[in-house]
């Protein structure tokens, strides 16, 4: 199955590819092409491009494909800002951090040759406590630390993008429970409309402490792409696309003012219709 397009909630476009590797390669090429087109549009000359990333297997595969893309040198990476839609609240050097994987697979390549300024990589705060302090902390203390970290990242976003931030492109993933970023069904964060960034304690998916952008931000990027592969995500895909803005399926809130696309695989689509 290749490039079969249908329309569902939020006028989303759905593309089914043969396997995860093809999906990742297509996403990488689309990303490079979109940034190049934006930078070569005479109306956008010297305009920053704000890219929002998340973690997950499919994003990691895309980073691997990006590292070998021959068009990378054609992009002015110093006009690109890298942000995260969510992050595991762990130590900076933890293998669990989304930002660490992005750096190892792709971003370090750009910073090492001075193509991308380190100041344009906007990581979410990390947990700077030692193991003993973390183990001894109460729920209330963890909530306060997460809230302070969320405020810090929110202030960084607002300082550059304003109080109603709009990213040029958000590349997201979705879990089998239809969570996006770290907005999980059944948790209150999915209903928060007052904040840009919130903390998540007791996440149903480890690690338990996280930071995440909220629905108002994730629903208003210019372009939003979901990378969603695997038969285990078929039901979540169908439920998220069947109706918009359903808190039982957080991914159903995602949207884009110019584009909302789901890049998925044949097995995912097959599972969705079964």
TrEMBL record:
- The EC number(s) given in the record are 3.1.1.31
Gene transcribed to yield this protein: pgl
Function statement:
Hydrolysis of 6-phosphogluconolactone to 6-phosphogluconate.
Give the family per the record.
Belongs to the glucosamine/galactosamine-6-phosphate isomerase family. 6-phosphogluconolactonase subfamily.
Protein's UniProt name? 6-phosphogluconolactonase
Its catalytic activity? 6-phospho-D-glucono-1,5-lactone + H2O = 6-phospho-D-gluconate + H(+)
Q: Which parts pass through the membrane? A: none
Annotated Glucosamine/galactosamine-6-phosphate isomerase domain ranges read 26-262
Query: What keywords are assigned to this protein?
Result: Hydrolase
- Cross-referenced InterPro entries, in alphabetical order? 6-phosphogluconolactonase_DevB, 6PGL, Glc/Gal-6P_isomerase, NagB/RpiA_transferase-like
Pathway listed for it is:
Carbohydrate degradation; pentose phosphate pathway; D-ribulose 5-phosphate from D-glucose 6-phosphate (oxidative stage): step 2/3
Q: Per the record's keyword annotation, is Hydrolase included, yes or no?
A: yes
